[in-house]
Amino acid sequence: MVQILDNPRRLARRRALRGLLFPLLFGLGVAAFTYGALAQRVTDRNDLLPDPIEAVLLGAAFALASFPRKWAIIARAVLLVPTFLLYLTVFLGKSPALPFAAAFTVAGGYAFFLTALSAHFAERPRRLKLPGRRQPRRSSGPA
């Protein structure tokens, strides 16, 4: 562990990998959550894509929107509409189908929540601004 802290390149690479791992894990979680929701649909099974591919695409879009990069705002703008349409088909295709107004409202809530969550993940602070162990404290008075 001491070798990693002594080498600034290794430390930067480790931080970069940790920054990439976080959105990928949450994108996988969104894909799993979406696949579970898609499995509850009874009607509307003649989609262009199979359910697992739809879930993986939405999870990948969420992961791209969660990256702490400048271009992630484009992915967040694109994420809103497919998420809304996908969850609208989920809520309208369930066994006891929701009324259209309720399904529309809940699908909109899911889409806005996932978009806001990806924005939060992309713009969260990277490190706490606390003094580390390596910085010696300076005394204010005479020694």
Keywords:
single chain; 143 residues; mainly alpha; elongated; 0% strand
Give a short summary of the structure:
The protein is mainly α and 143 residues long. It has a domain at 23-41 and 48-123. It has helices spanning 2-6, 8-39, 51-66, 72-93, 100-123.
The main pleated sheet reads as: none
Classify the secondary structure makeup into a structural class.
Answer: mainly alpha
Overall outline? elongated
Radius of gyration, taken over Cα atoms and rounded to an integer in Å: 21 Å
Helix content, binned percent: 55-70%
Number of helices: 5
Topology, number of strands? 0
SSE layout and pairing:
Blueprint: H1 2-6, H2 8-39, H3 51-66, H4 72-93, H5 100-123
Structural features, described:
- The protein has helices at 2-6, 8-39, 51-66, 72-93, 100-123.
- It is mainly α.
